[in-house]
Design goal:
heterotrimer; A alpha/beta (502); B mainly alpha (344); C mainly alpha (311); A: 502 residues; 25% strand
């Protein structure tokens, strides 16, 4: 029986000049699932963190069962039955499943010797969610979907009546996603209130009976899901001018392969790939699909010559670009746009000028007395659309979008033959996303080959000329765009799960 | 460490100096000495007259070299505390050079001795460098442990095969012949090593600021992965900076041994390695700033010696003050950050 | 095995355990400190302070137990400086540790001068009439003081606390994932301070055991880098208190074995002998890195301190 549980009234929260939540009022009902829909940066997470007590609003009220609440921290919110499962899990990888649950439970006994009373009660919820999970296994060894279940069990162990899920399906395989949908529906049937932050319409269709849409900090719409069409949702989410306004050049005539990957193998402590063979033509955009953690990172680095190979080779225009023990002078043949650019693509402690010019460090003359003209650098920064275009600005202070534009400005400057791009638009706003795509497509038109790692199936299906699916460190299959559809690609990503449960 | 803006760094340095003076006054009060008078006499003993000043410069020389020995690896983000060991091995190999070549007394002797010192130190920096580069063994721990081995190697030599029987049992080698010793300046104990140190500090500063090498170090220090993307070899740079740092400390060792001590014997260093590390840190790993800071600390140590002589305060008070100075300098940026966050 | 051999072995074990007792305390202390994510190089200074002030207290009062307590207290006081600098003010842990070491070095040579050459009475031996007449046990226990027993029991207790209680779970979480600890409602700074102070206490006690119980005398800089050796041994013991015991004993055993070599006619310079602890410590640390996959078992929270960005 749905009933009014929580009211948020006039919530406003600013971060500096950015208004993350602008006078947002919304109601959350028990026995119901609310989908909080919106683009990245629309303010969904901020709003829910306010409700969870992790962020204090500048103004506005939180009412629970009609009573006004003051949350000083998540502990206060938890005390009235509000729990949140974050995108970045708060599990401790080095600890076991049981230890993680004990850590989160206020009823955990002090003495935790085997057989101590109370040691198994923390496992009760989890054993219903995931009967096969061994509580003694280390969280580090578990799949993302399993970790999410533990995280959920943690929240349910606190007797939460309201459960907030932050982008819960973004890291799951299609099979895991289906299981989560089932779970959400169970919780709703149980009378709990579920709020799901998402930007995927599939999530909404599967379990949300109510939908709220946010854009640029404002609540655009709230009401029963059945009252809205898919198109209405997209329109109110994105507003005018979707990122799809850019489109890639048509697929090239693929008689010649510019990039040849032959039986490539590589391994790190946590990931490995083997037997990877790919050919990419000039002007071709090859997408690599797959659930995160199937070897993407090591494959991307191996392709870019940044990770040693255990087997095989990568050639561009017939010349090997594979890793060598002594790094060669970069010739600009391969551009690499790594994931998490702040961590992997720039030196945050140096200024924009240093990061922009870094590619020629090995070719510079030894003495560097005269500095290059500031005006020239400003022009380059403006051309790359980095704001503000101040060469002496510290790179660590840039926002995600500007940072990625800086990286593109540097990596694509040398007219590379191969571009290895890993999740290049992750976490970017609409405008920055559009810039990134436009730049990549321009190089495609020039004749560059692009290998593009993405976890957004819809984007891959829309832009990539071909899609290869990476599963368990191998290529599970390659599909041309005209033969590819969501279900087919999903099957390729999924087979691993079916094989394991069979 | 919290990052501070430029004006905050300047204010921080001033604040650290002030805080240190207060802490030092407190320390003197605790040990029952008149605080202000003791502090003033320390300043006088450091720079008050020609002799004091020359003694300060004598102490400053090895400290400056050892500071540079810590600064070079620090430019790559490495925390090498190995100057003490490198100092001793430099002294050892340099002295070995002297013992080996001294029958042919000639102009070549001095360069050979200096080269031996640098080579010994470099070797002793190369070892933790290669361990770091090849096996990722933490360089701080290896250099700290190697320090003790380096000191004991000198002891083994001077108590054993290199002991000069003419010393009546005193563990020391024969004296360095004049041709193997750097010239002394102004008729004091100050020697040409100081000039060499100043020159090297200047050269290193220019290299760090204005050379491809310095910029490569900046990139690798900030992000090893990105360095690799740009074609920079982290391992090679690790070995280079560790060996170069070691060479600088080795030069300090052979200079101190040949000029100030006159022979290799135990106790050639009074903790110059660790003091140099402190100076490097206080100077913010800036080679040029290391010059004034090592002058300051050299003065502190020289004054500590004089204080023991005239005021009967143990010279170890200088060690306590060094530790307190280091702690104050580490505390100030955090205090500023705290103050800033309190203000909102 | 005949009784004579057993007696010989018992004598060996007792000798190793006796000489390893100070290091056992110190290594355990450093392990606990690093478990909460704080590397403490100042442990060398804390151990030295424990040795100096512990000896002073024992020599003044004539009570070895008071000496150990005073030593522990001295260690705590110095570790408070480290805790304040790193946890309170976010200073670099290596830098802060060296500052603490320097302060300890200076203060102990400053105040310790009065006690150089002094003597104290040893604390009681474990042996006694209650043993009955087993010569093997007698050989073992007569040569051990209760500090050795206390050290072994403390190692076991620390292991139990860390792996089998909620408090230990909280400590491990803070060292592994401070963010997750905060999310679980734990006070990260408070637990880190507890870890550092407890580490300082154990280091101080270890130093006091060295001066009061083992050498029964005080000399300047008498710890000679034992605290730094402990920092290396923590890596070898993989941050596991239970493994601290075998690690320290094997280390002590290797040291003792080489010393015995000399007795067997194998002549070594006393300076080479003196450098053995450092060389052995270096070798085991390098070995731990080379064969143990780099830094395995290292709490995640420490990796930011130990590692260079992106390497």
């Amino acid at each position: 029986m749905p009933g009014r549980l929580i009211q948020l009234r006039g919530i406003t929260r600013r971060f500096g000049s950015l208004v993350a939540n602008d006078d947002v009022s919304i109601e959350i009902e028990s026995g119901s699932c609310l989908a909080l829909l919106g683009e990245n940066g629309a303010g969904k997470s901020t709003l829910m963190k306010v409700l969870y007590g992790a962020i204090q609003p500048d103004s506005g009220d939180i009412l629970i069962d009609g009573r006004q609440q003051q949350f000083r921290g998540p502990a206060d919110a938890m005390a009235v039955g509000i729990g949140m499962v974050f995108q970045q899990f708060s599990l401790v990888p080095a600890l076991t499943v049981r230890e993680n649950l004990l850590l989160a439970s206020p009823r955990a006994p002090w003495l935790q010797v085997p057989g101590a009373p109370g040691l198994d009660t923390v496992l009760e919820v989890l054993s219903r969610l995931a009967p096969d999970l061994d509580p003694r296994s280390r969280v580090a060894d578990l799949a993302v979907g399993e970790r999410q279940l533990i995280e959920l069990a943690k929240v349910l162990n606190l007797d939460a009546r309201t459960i907030i899920l932050d982008e819960p399906t973004s890291v799951l395989t299609p099979a895991e996603t289906q299981r989560l949908y089932g779970l959400i529906n169970e919780m709703v049937a149980d009378g709990k209130a579920v709020v799901m932050i998402t930007h995927k319409l599939a999530d909404v269709a599967a379990c949300a009976d109510r939908t709220a849409i946010m854009r640029r900090g404002k609540l655009i719409h709230a009401g029963p899901t059945r009252d809205m069409s898919r198109q209405q949702m997209v329109d109110s989410m994105i507003g005018a001018g979707s990122p799809a306004s850019a489109s890639p050049p048509p697929p090239p005539d693929r008689n010649v392969a510019r990039v040849v990957v032959r039986e490539l193998g590589a391994r790190t402590e946590t990931q490995q790939v083997q037997g990877i063979s790919l050919e990419v033509a000039p002007g071709e955009l090859l997408g690599i699909a797959g659930v995160v953690g199937n070897g993407q990172t090591v494959l991307a680095e191996a392709l870019a010559g940044l990770h040693p190979l255990t087997a095989g080779d990568v050639t561009v225009d017939g010349i090997s670009v594979a890793w060598r023990p002594t790094p060669p002078v970069p010739d600009g043949r391969v551009a690499h746009i790594p994931e998490q650019p702040m961590l992997n693509a720039v030196v945050p402690t140096l200024d924009l000028a240093a990061n922009l010019q870094m590619r020629d460090i090995r070719r510079r003359s030894f003495w560097q007395f005269g500095r290059r003209g500031q005006a020239d650098l400003t022009v380059r920064l403006q051309a790359a659309d980095v704001r503000p275009p101040e060469p002496s600005r510290l790179t660590g202070t840039l926002s995600g979008g500007n940072l990625q534009k800086l990286v593109l400005g540097r990596e694509l400057a040398g007219e590379p033959s191969l571009i290895v791009a890993c999740y290049p638009t992750m976490g970017l706003d609409v405008a920055a996303t559009r810039t990134v795509y436009r730049q990549l497509f321009a190089h495609l038109a020039r004749g560059a080959s692009i290998i593009w790692f993405s976890e957004e199936l819809d984007d891959l299906l829309e832009y990539a000329h071909r899609i290869a699916v990476l599963r368990d460190g191998r290529i599970a299959g390659i599909r041309n765009r005209d033969q590819a559809d969501r279900a087919g690609i999903g099957d390729l990503m999924l087979m691993h799960d079916m094989a394991r449960s069979a | 460490m919290p990052t501070l803006a430029r004006h905050e760094r300047l204010a921080g340095a001033a604040l650290a100096a002030l805080a240190f003076i207060i802490v030092a006054l407190g320390f003197f009060a605790v040990i029952g000495e008149p605080p202000l008078a003791t502090l003033l006499s320390m300043a006088e003993y450091a720079v008050g007259d020609r002799y004091s000043l020359s003694e300060t410069l004598v102490k400053m020389t090895p400290i400056l070299f050892c500071a540079l020995a810590a600064i070079v690896p620090a430019r790559l983000g490495l925390i090498s505390v190995g100057a003490e060991g490198q100092f001793h091995v430099g002294a050892l190999i340099g002295t070995g050079m002297m013992l080996w070549t001294q029958p042919f007394d000639g102009w070549l002797l001095l360069p050979l001795v200096l080269l031996g010192g640098a080579a010994g130190g470099a070797l002793y920096g190369w070892l933790p460098g290669i361990l770091r580069a090849r096996l990722s063994v933490n360089e701080t721990i290896t250099t700290l442990l190697l320090n003790y081995v380096g000191v004991l190697m000198v002891s083994a030599a001077v108590y054993g095969p290199w002991k000069d029987p003419g010393n009546l049992g005193w563990p020391a080698t024969i004296a360095f012949p004049d041709a193997a010793v750097l010239p002394q300046l102004f008729g004091t104990r100050v020697h040409a090593g100081l000039l060499l140190g100043l020159l090297l500090a200047l050269c290193l500063h220019v290299l760090f600021r204005f050379s491809r090498w310095g910029q490569s170090l900046d990139i690798l220090k900030g992000n090893v992965r990105v360095g690799r993307m740009m074609g920079l070899d982290y391992r090679r740079h690790v070995i280079i900076v560790m060996a170069l740092g070691g060479a600088l400390a080795g030069l300090a060792g052979i200079g101190e041994t040949s000029v100030i001590q006159g022979r290799l014997q135990p106790g050639i260093s009074v903790g110059y390695g660790l003091t140099g590390f402190l100076v490097a840190w206080l100077a913010g790993h800036n080679a040029l700033l290391a010059i004034p800071v090592s002058f300051l600390i050299g003065g502190l140590i020289a004054a500590g010696d004089t204080l023991q002589l005239f005021n009967k305060i143990p010279a170890s008070s200088a060690t306590v003050l060094q530790g307190l100075m280091f702690a104050t300098a580490l505390a100030v940026p955090g205090l500023i950050a705290l103050w800033r966050s309190r203000r909102g | 095995m005949d009784e004579a051999t057993l007696i010989l072995i018992a004598g060996w074990v007792a000798a190793i355990l006796r000489s390893a007792t100070p290091l056992l305390f110190v290594t355990l202390g450093e392990t606990l400190s690093q478990r909460v994510g704080i590397i403490n190089l100042g442990i060398e200074g804390e151990m030295l302070a424990g040795a100096c002030f512990g000896f002073a207290a024992a020599a003044t009062t004539g009570d070895p137990l008071l000496g150990l307590i005073a030593g522990g207290a001295a260690g705590v006081v110095l570790s408070m400086v480290h805790a304040g600098l790193c946890i309170g003010l976010g200073a670099n842990q290596f830098g802060s540790g060296l500052a603490v070491w320097m302060i300890g070095l200076g203060i102990t040579s400053f105040y310790g001068r009065a006690f150089v050459g002094g003597q104290v009475d040893a604390s009681g031996s474990l042996g006694g009439s209650w043993l009955g007449d087993s010569p093997v046990l007698a050989q073992l226990l007569d040569n051990l003081s209760w500090t050795a027993l206390a050290a072994v029991l403390l190692v076991l207790l620390a292991g139990f606390l860390l792996y089998r209680t909620r408090t230990g779970l909280a400590w491990r979480t803070v060292g592994e994932a401070p963010e997750a600890a905060r999310a679980a409602g734990l006070s990260v700074p408070r637990i880190q301070v507890s870890g550092v102070l407890l580490g300082g206490f154990l280091a101080g006690v270890g130093g006091a055991v060295l001066s009061v119980d083992y050498t029964q005398t005080w000399a300047q800089e008498m710890t000679k880098g034992r605290g730094l050796v402990a920092v290396g041994l923590v890596i070898v013991a993989r941050w596991n208190p239970y493994l601290v015991l075998p690690t320290v004993l094997v280390f002590g055993g290797a040291e003792a074995a080489v010393t015995r070599l000399q007795a067997g006619g194998f002549v070594l310079s006393s300076h080479v002998l003196a450098s053995l602890p450092y060389i052995i410590a270096l070798l085991v640390v390098v070995g731990a890195y080379a064969w143990g996959r780099r830094g395995s078992g290292m709490p995640e929270g420490l990796k930011g301190v130990f590692a260079v960005r992106g390497s």
